[in-house]
Amino acid sequence: MAWVGNPVWLADVLRAEGLTVIEHDGWLTRGHGEYRDIRGVMAHHTAGGTPNDWRVVMFGRPDLPGPLSNLVLEKDGTYRVVAAGVCWHAGRGSWPGWPTNNANWHVIGIEAVSTGRPDAQGRFDWTPEQLDAYVRGCAAIARKVGFSVNNVVGHKEYSSEGKIDPAGIDMADFRRQVQQVIVNGPGPVDREVFPLPTGYYFGPLEGPTESISGQHPSERPQWREGLKFWQARQEIPQTGVWDAATADAARAVQRAHGWRPDGLIGPGTWAAGLRGAPAPEPVPEPTPTPEPEPVPIPEPDQPSAPDSESQSNLRWPLVIVRRIPGWVRERIPFGR
Ligand SMILES: [Zn+2]
């Protein structure tokens, strides 16, 4: 069930998703023409990052008349509905199932307010409210028109003109989130599941980008909620922040499993901390600052436990002790 013609339902559909909507006067008749069949939605950033970015989207620039997008997504998660008609946003490019260099007549544009530039730590100025509304807005439109999540596309993915927007958003991860909302609605999440995208972990604010501290405004609220759940299981304060107590708890879990105690929480440490037993497939943790492995001191008088973990801890110092006589024999000419 495709939709042919202008998406005159934009404001209603977004509101039904629980989003805040501002309808600009005349939006129903604003545009560069009538939509044909609607096949997708394209995500952009404004590159301005100011509360006035929407004016450029509505009225255009000296070189390009407005409207430049159907929707503007503010930093607080509010949607401005600017135009129901065709907007100049896609430019030249291609995407499976869309007409090459001609997407504007088939694709709804969302311009989200962002500078598009990373800070010194490589992070972008997206707010949690904005990212949440971005995902839910795309899901609401996809559900209304009935196109698949594969048609929620970043300008940077479509463009043959070197566009980089929306910068700082991994579109594959974004589509996974949109799919989750389409299928489940904004319902409860499985809190046992590691809440971060692939390659990310809970760690210090100083970075790198994959290190989620719970302290940066670009981080999603559900990540902090996830960390609180893990903290509750460790019986430490539920701060939602990777603080000293959290790093200590992670190190305790890692030591109990014979892993390098770096205090960072990736999927392996996450699962181990929740289950209190080794994860089926321990995932190697990221290693920004390698720490020396503590050397266990063998105690020959103490009967060794049949536990394989303690065996492996004892093994290598004993091997060294056994090798010392041979090493000495080879180097000192006894009896010659
Ligand atoms: Zn764009």
UniProtKB/TrEMBL annotation:
For this protein, what is any one GO molecular function term?
A: N-acetylmuramoyl-L-alanine amidase activity
Biased composition range(s): Pro residues = 279-303
SUPFAM superfamilies for the chain: N-acetylmuramoyl-L-alanine amidase-like (SSF55846), PGBD-like (SSF47090)
- Residues in domain N-acetylmuramoyl-L-alanine amidase? 28-167
What's its EC? 3.5.1.28
**Keywords, ordered alphabetically:** Cell wall biogenesis/degradation, Hydrolase
Gene Ontology annotations of biological process type: cell wall organization; peptidoglycan catabolic process; peptidoglycan turnover
Q: Which domain of life is it from?
A: Bacteria
Sorted alphabetically, which Pfam families does this protein's record hold? Amidase_2, PG_binding_1
Q: Known catalysed reaction(s)?
A: Hydrolyzes the link between N-acetylmuramoyl residues and L-amino acid residues in certain cell-wall glycopeptides
What segment(s) does the record annotate as region Disordered? 268-312
Which family does the UniProt entry place this protein in? Answer: Belongs to the N-acetylmuramoyl-L-alanine amidase 2 family.
Protein name stated in the entry: N-acetylmuramoyl-L-alanine amidase
What is the species listed in this Swiss-Prot or TrEMBL entry? Hoyosella rhizosphaerae
